[in-house]
C-alpha cells in the first residue's frame, strides 16, 4: 500500500482535475472557510473516496466538482473542460434518494431523460436493464413509498445511471442504510462500475466501505477543510464480500483509521 503525496503535480488526462479549489461561505459579516485551496487529480475510470470528520468540506468539494456550487478560489476541470455549471455526462447521487413521490419507480428512473427531452424508446430499454441490475423489476410500477430505504436508494442510483454518465459523484449514498443493505449496495455499485466503466467520486463516513470500494482514499481534515493524505488501496479486483475478512483488508482499514486519528488530533 503506497501513499501518494497530496497536492501532487497535475497529471495530464485526468478525468477530474481540482486545482487549488477553495470555498469560503459568506453570510452577512460571517465567513466560513469550508475548503482551503485543494488540488486533486482523479484518473479516468478510477474509484476515489473522500473520508474525513464532519464539516471537513467533503460535500462542498463534491458540489464544486458537480458544478452545483461556484468555488471562491481555484478551478475544476472535467475531461479538460473548466466547470462553470453542471457538466453533461456527470451524475450526482445524494444520501436522500429524492424520488418524486407521485411517479412510479420506472418513471423516476426515466426523469433525467424526460427533462433533457431525450429519445424515449432506447431510454425505456435502458431503464428496464437498470431495474433488473438493481433488482427492482418487480417494483417498476410501484410508488417510492411502497419501497424500503435500500430499494429507494437503488432506484435513485438507477436514475443517476440512466444517461450512462462518465463521472458519478456520490455523497454518502448509503449513509442512512443498515450495514447489510449497505454491503449489498456496495456490491451492486461495484458491479455497475465494472460492467460500465466510469469514474466515481464517493463521499463516505465508513472506513470499511471506502476500503472495499476504492482505488484511492482521500483523507480530509477539518478547520480549514482540505486534504490530509491520499492512500492507495491495492486490494485485488474484482472485490468480493469475502475480501472483507482478509488480513489485507484489515490492514488497509487500520491504515485509514490511523490517518483519521492523526486528523482528529490536529
Ligand atoms: N451553505 C452553507 N453556508 C454556510 N456554511 C456552510 C454551508 N454549507 C456548508 N457550510 C460549512 O462548511 C463546512 C464544510 O461543510 P461540508 O458540508 O462540506 O462538510 P462535510 O465534510 O461534507 O460534512 P459532513 O460529513 O457532516 O456531511 C462546515 O463548517 C459547514 O458548516
TrEMBL record:
Keywords: ATP-binding, Nucleotide-binding, Transport. Residues 18-247 form the ABC transporter domain. SUPFAM superfamilies: P-loop containing nucleoside triphosphate hydrolases (SSF52540). GO terms for molecular function: ATP binding; ATP hydrolysis activity. InterPro entries: AAA+_ATPase, ABC_transporter-like_ATP-bd, ABC_transporter_ATP-bind, P-loop_NTPase. SMART domains: AAA (SM00382). Pfam families: ABC_tran. The lineage of its organism: Bacteria, Bacillati, Actinomycetota, Actinomycetes, Streptosporangiales. This is NitT/TauT family transport system ATP-binding protein.
Amino acid at each position: 500500500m503506497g501513499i501518494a503525496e497530496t497536492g501532487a503535480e497535475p497529471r495530464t488526462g485526468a478525468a477530474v482535475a481540482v486545482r487549488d479549489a477553495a470555498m469560503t461561505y459568506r453570510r452577512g459579516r460571517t465567513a466560513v472557510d469550508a475548503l482551503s485551496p485543494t488540488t486533486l487529480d482523479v484518473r479516468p475510470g478510477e474509484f476515489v473516496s473522500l473520508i474525513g470528520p464532519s464539516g471537513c468540506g467533503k460535500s462542498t468539494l463534491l458540489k464544486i466538482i458537480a458544478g452545483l456550487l461556484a468555488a471562491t478560489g481555484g478551478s475544476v476541470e472535467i475531461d479538460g473542460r473548466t466547470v462553470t455549471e453542471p457538466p453533461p455526462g456527470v451524475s450526482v447521487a445524494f444520501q436522500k434518494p429524492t424520488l418524486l413521490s407521485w411517479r412510479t419507480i420506472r418513471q423516476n428512473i426515466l426523469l433525467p431523460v424526460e427533462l433533457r427531452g431525450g429519445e424515449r424508446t432506447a431510454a425505456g430499454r435502458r431503464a428496464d436493464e437498470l431495474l433488473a441490475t438493481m433488482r427492482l423489476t418487480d417494483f417498476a410500477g410501484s410508488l417510492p413509498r411502497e419501497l424500503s430505504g435500500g430499494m429507494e436508494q437503488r432506484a435513485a442510483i438507477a436514475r443517476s445511471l440512466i444517461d450512462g454518465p462518465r463521472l458519478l459523484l456520490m455523497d454518502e449514498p448509503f449513509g442512512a442504510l443498515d450495514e447489510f443493505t449497505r454491503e449489498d449496495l456496495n456490491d451492486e455499485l461495484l458491479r455497475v462500475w465494472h460492467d460500465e466503466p466510469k469514474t466515481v467520486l464517493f463521499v463516505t463516513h465508513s472506513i470499511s466501505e471506502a476500503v472495499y470500494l476504492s482505488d484511492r482514499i482521500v483523507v480530509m481534515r477539518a478547520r480549514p477543510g482540505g486534504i490530509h493524505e491520499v492512500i492507495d488501496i491495492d486490494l485485488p479486483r474484482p472485490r468480493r464480500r469475502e475480501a472483507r475478512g482478509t488480513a489485507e483488508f484489515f490492514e488497509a482499514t487500520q491504515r485509514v483509521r490511523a490517518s483519521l486519528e492523526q486528523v482528529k488530533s490536529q
